[in-house]
Each structure stands twice: as C-alpha cells, then as structure tokens.
Amino acid sequence: MTRHVYHCPIRWSDMDVYQHVNNAVFLTYLEEARSDMLGVHAARAGVDTFAAGCVSAKHGIEYKTPLEWRETAVDVEVWVTDLRAASFNLAYEVKDEGTLYAKAASTMVPYDLKSRLPRRLTDSERAYLTRFLAQRPA
User: Fold this and answer.
1) HSE value, Cβ hemisphere, 13 Å, CA-based, for 39
2) If you ran DSSP here, which 8-state letter would residue 67 be given?
3) Residue 125 is inside which H or E element, if any?
4) What's the maximum distance between 2 C-alpha atoms anywhere in the chain?
5) Residue 136 domain-assigned?
6) Which of these, 108, 98, 54, 119, lies nearest to 78 by C-alpha position?
7) Which pLDDT belongs to residue 137?
8) Which phi and psi angles does 92 have, rounded to 5°?
9) Which stretches of the chain score pLDDT less than 70?
10) Tens digits of per-residue pLDDT, 95-117?
C-alpha cells in the first residue's frame, strides 16, 4: 500500500489563542491533502473525475498533541481504508519525523454536481484508489 504524502505549510493565521494550530484548521489540512491526492495527482494519473465532484460525508479527528507554528511544513499522509460502489473511506496522519499530531478519517462520496446526486465510482477512479488501499489482516 502506498500513502499519499502532502507537505502542508503552517500559516500564522492557523494559530489560536493557545499558540497552537486551532482544532478546526486540521480539517483544512485534511482537505488540502485530499485535494492534492484526488485532484492534482489523480489528474496527472489520467483520472480527472474526482475534481468534477466528490463530497465529504463524514469526518472524525483524534488529536494527539498540540501542533505549534513553525517554518517547516507538516506531513499529512492519506490512504484508503475501504472502497465501496459509491463511497470510499480515507485515513490520515498529521505528523513529522518524530511526532504524530492527529489521526483522522473521512467518508467520501463521488457526486454528480449537475444532478446533485451521489454516483458510483468509475473503473478508473477505483483503479487509482486501489493504489492507496490498506491491506486488511488475513
């Protein structure tokens, strides 16, 4: 299994009154990593349909330790934990070499923006996502 790695800069405006990245900003970090994986990199692989419509149905975040401002980016690793006909689950870790700041999960739904309805994953989307699919224990 391959994990997609997004190097996410920490912006001064991400800080809260406690001098660390605000909890709500972590959702933005996840969105940036997910957009990089499903938009930029998928399009480079010949799969541009995610950018045409894919919505978040559910998120969950477990905060491990405060992330303070620094000049270096933090890594957001993303991988697929489940593939279904019309949805898929992503897992994330926000970390650097020595520290895990947060773990998260999202349920994503391919979406037809014109009809405003969920749609099934295409064969090319499924093939792209399979590269990032975590192997389940036997």
Assistant:
1) 12
2) -
3) helix 123-130
4) 46
5) no
6) 108
7) 55
8) -140, 150
9) 136-138
10) 999 999 999 999 999 999 999 99
Predicted confidence at residue 119, as pLDDT, reads 96
The count of structural domains within the chain is 1
The tokens of 105 are what? 């999960």
Residue 73 within any structural domain of the chain: yes
List residues bridging with 103 in a β-sheet: 62, 93
Residue 38 is predicted with a pLDDT of 97
- Number of Cβ atoms within 10 Å of the Cβ of 8: 19
Q: Is residue 135 part of a domain?
A: no
Sign for the pseudo-dihedral over CA of 130, 131, 134, 136 = positive
CATH number of residue 117's parent domain:
3.10.129.10
Q: How far apart are CA 102 and CA 93, in angstroms?
A: 6
Residue 82 lies in a domain: yes
pLDDT of residue 51: 85
Q: Which two tokens stand for residue 116?
A: 């405003």
d(CA 60, CA 106): 7
Domain of 125 in residue numbering reads as 4-130
Place of tokens 């349909």: 49
